[in-house]
Amino acid sequence: MEKHHTDVIIVGAGPVGLFAVFELGLYDMKAHLVDILDKPGGQCAELYPEKPIYDIPAIPVCTGAELVARLMEQIKPFHPTFHLGQMAEKLEKTPEGKWQLTTDAGTVLEAPVVVIAAGGGSFMPKKPPLKNIEAFEGQSVFYAVRKRENFRGKNIVVAGGGDSALDWALNLQPLAGRITLLHRRDDFRAAPDSVGKMREMVAEKKMDLVIAQLLDVKGDGGQLSSLVVKPEGAEAYDVACDTLLAFYGLTMKLGPVANFGLNLHENLIPVNTADFESSEARIFAIGDINAYPGKLKLILSGFHEAALMAKKAFAYVYPDRKYRFQYTTSSSDLQNKLGLEKAA
Amino acid sequence: MKIIVTDMDGKSHELPAEEDWSVMEIIRDHGIPILAQCGGSCACATCHVYVDAAWQDKLPEANEEEIGMLDGAFDVQKNSRLACQIVFNSSLDGLTLTLAPGSV
Ligand SMILES: Cc1cc2nc3c(=O)[nH]c(=O)nc-3n(C[C@H](O)[C@H](O)[C@H](O)COP(=O)(O)OP(=O)(O)OC[C@H]3O[C@@H](n4cnc5c(N)ncnc54)[C@H](O)[C@@H]3O)c2cc1C
Ligand code: FES
Predict the structure, then answer these.
(1) What are B49-73's pLDDT values in tens digits?
(2) Which of B41, B46, B74 sits opposite A51 (nearest CB)?
(3) Is A284 in a helix, a strand, or coil?
(4) A127 contacts chain B (CB < 8 A)
(5) Interface contact B51, partner A, CB < 8 A
(6) The model's pTM
(7) Under CATH, domain A127-248 is a member of which superfamily?
(8) What is the homologous superfamily of the domain B2-99 according to CATH?
(9) How far is A48 from chain B, CA to nearest CA, in Å?
């Protein structure tokens, strides 16, 4: 078990969670961030890295990925610690009145303040809407590869047409018994290099390619025996296999935050607009996850919320210190923290 | 002007429609449940609908981005579209469609 003590735990490393590191850092509060994605940036990084954003103040245009890169640069002086690829699962109060957060990877974080910046919820794999699929999940149907070795010798169908599907089909090919790639059309939205390699393997009969849609899963006691697939304009048929790896992209679901013991309204966390604290003292909610009269789910709203949150968080983290309002332009104290030369 | 939407329970709704709004927005604004998680940015495929056969050819064709995004949908048919990518105009008065699995 890995345990860390810090000033503030931030759940969600989307744009708002990232900017919170900056606002907290200016007032000497160190932060640890947890995100289920394997990269920072939340929706900007996962859903629209290449799309332009036009309404970030003073940046006429930047892409989702550029915004994340800029935020990462801006918060660098504060050395945040990231726990990526981990789900924040459990939040408990310690006997000393601090918060203890445990992730699904067993990381334990302890801090006086928690900031929920969970956006539209945690990113989770999209599951095919088949009524009996749950019975197979975790045993013979998977949405991610945790341990490559578990797939040795298996007769695997990899479903999907993007980079994850292609990458895993290629990656597992050498150790699988048989790999079949299943996609609804003979066109792949993946790196041209992987598509080329896949085509080569199919030509050499080292991999099968099935152009059809998944209709059903068959098997017993959680063990898959075949998939029912249907090519366009043709009859459905069975493809024998013992493992399905499905990559249909990600979707956002509230997830474990629902069990943190906070008041929720339509899966959002109501906050007061003076400091964005939730129904529970020392737990704040900022960005897309919170709700208050007049809320707009915009990145700039989240940035504003982060600044006000930090002011109140300071009172919790440093009960004996006085909060001094300062400008980064003129405060040599803040500039020191940013690692800049002393202002002239 | 109107569109006719069949929801996931098989119930049909006649919704007043305004020009220049996407079909997803028209559905959502009338309180018919539709996930439309990305808010209409062609980034989630949770606004998947089946367009009635009679209307299929009257719609502008889906672009590559929409077709690509449909890879993340299930049970995709010839008449599958993303409702956020159909912009309503007077030539679509009476457009009839059905919500697809995964859109609620
Ligand atoms: C296509 C598209 C275009 C957009 N364009 C604009 C625009 O032009 N301007 C604008 O202002 N906004 C835009 N938005 C909205 C903007 O992206 C969101 O407002 C913003 O991402 C919210 O940031 P956030 O940090 O609150 O949450 P998110 O970006 O949603 O990040 C939340 C993070 O928290 C993680 N998380 C949640 N729960 C857990 C948990 N229990 N454990 C671990 N991790 C968890 C999630 O995995 C996620 O990475 C757009 C959105 C989309 C989809
Ligand atoms: S609303 Fe997300 S693709 Fe249409």
Answers:
(1) 999 999 999 999 999 999 999 999 9
(2) B41
(3) strand
(4) no
(5) no
(6) 0.90
(7) FAD/NAD(P)-binding domain (3.50.50.60)
(8) Beta-grasp domain (3.10.20.30)
(9) 7
